[in-house]
Predict the structure.
Amino acid sequence: TINGYYRDDEVKKVIAEHYTDTCRTFTEYYFDDGMLIYVKEQNFVYNLPITYTEEVAKAKGDSVWYDDKLTKMELSRFYFDDKKLIKWIDTDNTEVRSQLPEFIDKESELWARAVILLKQLMIRLL
């Protein structure tokens, strides 16, 4: 799901929620003057797939099954300036070096996702 938050006619924040069997992800995109300035991604990683219930585990002779109390939250933060990713704080709360190829790839990935979400919001408004 996606939700957009506006000031006047300008998108200021987009929240995207994504759910799978193995995790749920909440990503917040912040904009200023149409430019992406900050992204916060919270990824909740399950101990086992959500479909692996107690009943399924016991039927397979397993003593461990999905337990939401064992879910781990991984937080990543991304800072942009003038269309460029300038800082990335990863899930270990350490800064990712900008010289790494992953840094450059992440910049493109985040911009692409932001553009897709903005287009989806515009379609919903029509």
Summary: The mean pLDDT is 94. The chain is about 25% helix and 40% strand.
